[in-house]
Structure formats: structure tokens, C-alpha cells
Amino acid sequence: MDFGTFILSFLLQMLFTLGFIFLFGFVIALCNGAFYRNLATHGRAVCYITGFIGTPVHEASHALFCLIFGHKILEIKFFQLNSSDGVLGYVRHAYNPRSIYQRVGNLFIGIAPVLVGALILAGLLYLLLPELFAGVSAEISQIDFIGDLGGSFGHMWRSFALMFSYIGSWQWWVFLLIGSFIATHMTLSREDIKGALSGLAAYVLIFLIADIILFFVSPAALSAFTGGVAAAGAFMLFFFCIFLVISLVLLAISFIVRALSRSKGR
After folding, report:
1. Distances (CA, A) of 98 to 91, 102, 139, 201, 226
2. Most CB within 10 Å of its CB: which of 14, 47, 211, 246?
3. Range of 184's domain?
4. What are the pLDDT digits (tens) for 110-141?
5. What is the Cα–Cα distance from 249 to 179, expressed in whole angstroms?
6. In this structure, is residue 88 part of a structural domain?
7. Is residue 182 part of a domain?
8. The model's pTM
């Protein structure tokens, strides 16, 4: 393995972990912002209704990673109405800045709603439609973006086709409804992003050191590690795409609602 392959392996690891999370988190945040703006005066009411599930999931995600990375939770609000600043929930935490582990935790705590949201969506699919989950998992397990890019997109497409083949079942609609409530509250706040960025350097450094060690000890091990990261990333990518589809559908509905409201006002 040459140095160029080493760099490519590192970049792929970053893409299949942080890259997809930040990309989909950003796009979904744009969709959510436009969704609530289009609903105008009804936006706040819809936010409260969806927030009954979405906000606790969002804040519980932060709290979970606070516990995993040893941060001290100072205060937590899973859901609150009519706060003076309009915030539906929050988690305040403290950590030891001299601990690399806890500094890396800042990254995961910040992006937790996107990461945990995808895992919850996967869990819902497993509980509600186990046969569908098995079929989707079988397709995703064959994805190899590094070795077979074209074939990987084919497996991803078949996974989506399989998803929509269950549209006639009530479990599918429950899955969609809960997914919509979570998706509309996946938006990362400025504090979330700021906290995540504070742990980014430590995260990248750990991966870089691990890759250097694997590169000199066993290039094959580095390739296997990169393949494992890509496989996990492909699994998460599928559910990120589901959230994106949900967000785009909700956005389209909000544009229809806005158009109808304007036509009535004329």
C-alpha cells in the first residue's frame, strides 16, 4: 500500500463517518427551516405537535452521549412549552477539557440527534416490519462503495424499492409518522454545531494515528478497517436517505399549504 492509498483510506473513513452525518444534517436542517416557514402562523402549533416525540428524542440523544463520554449533565429539559426563548428542550453539560476522550465526546454529543435518529429509525423498522428490515439489511450488506460503486447504487436503489413495496401495511405508515416527528426535530442548533466542532480535531487525530499504525504494521488491516467503516457508513446512509425523503415530502406538502393559504387570502 502506497502513501496515496493511505490518504484515500483516511478520507474515505472521514466521508463515511462525519461526511455523511454533516451533509445530511445540513440538508435536513434546510428542509425543516423552509417547512416551518411555509406553514407561517401554523408552524408553531405543528412544531409543538411533532415536538412531543421529536424533541425528547433530540435531547435524549444528547444526554445519552453525555453519559457515554463521561460528561456531567448539569440540567436537562426533554420538552417544554411556552419558554421565554422559544426553546423546546436542551441539555447543559460539563466536561474535563484535558481529557481527549471527553473532548471527542463533544463531537458525538453535538451530532447525536442525527446519529441516534437514524438508529431509532432502524430499530422501528426492525420492530414494526422485521421481514422488510431483513430484506433491506441483506441488500445493504452487499454494498461496497470502495470496490463496486455502480453495484452499490443498485443495491441502495433496490433497498428503497423494497421499502415502498410495503406501503399498503399499517406498520409502514406508523413507521413513516414517527419518522416524520423525529425528522422535523433533527435540526442541530448553533450550540450543537459549536460543541461538535470543538471535538472534531481530537476525533480526526485519533483516526489519523490509528491509520498510521495500521499502515506500518499491516496495510491489509488498514484496508479491512476502512472497509468496515464504509460498511457501517452505508447502513447509516440508507436511513439518512429515508430521513431526507421524509423531509423533502414534508417540504413539498408545506409549499402546497402555503400556496393554498395565499390563494384563499386573495
Report:
1. 21, 8, 43, 14, 29
2. 246
3. 3-44+111-265
4. 999 998 999 999 999 999 999 999 999 898 88
5. 12
6. no
7. yes
8. 0.85
Give the whole-angstrom CA distance, residue 130 versus residue 124.
9
**How many C-beta neighbours within 10 Å does residue 110 have?**
25
Q: Are 244 and 46 in contact (CB under 8 A)?
A: no
Structurally, how many domains does the chain consist of? 1
Intra-chain end-to-end CA distance of the chain, in Å:
68
**pLDDT value of position 266:** 59
Residue 102 in domain? no
In a domain, 90, yes or no: no
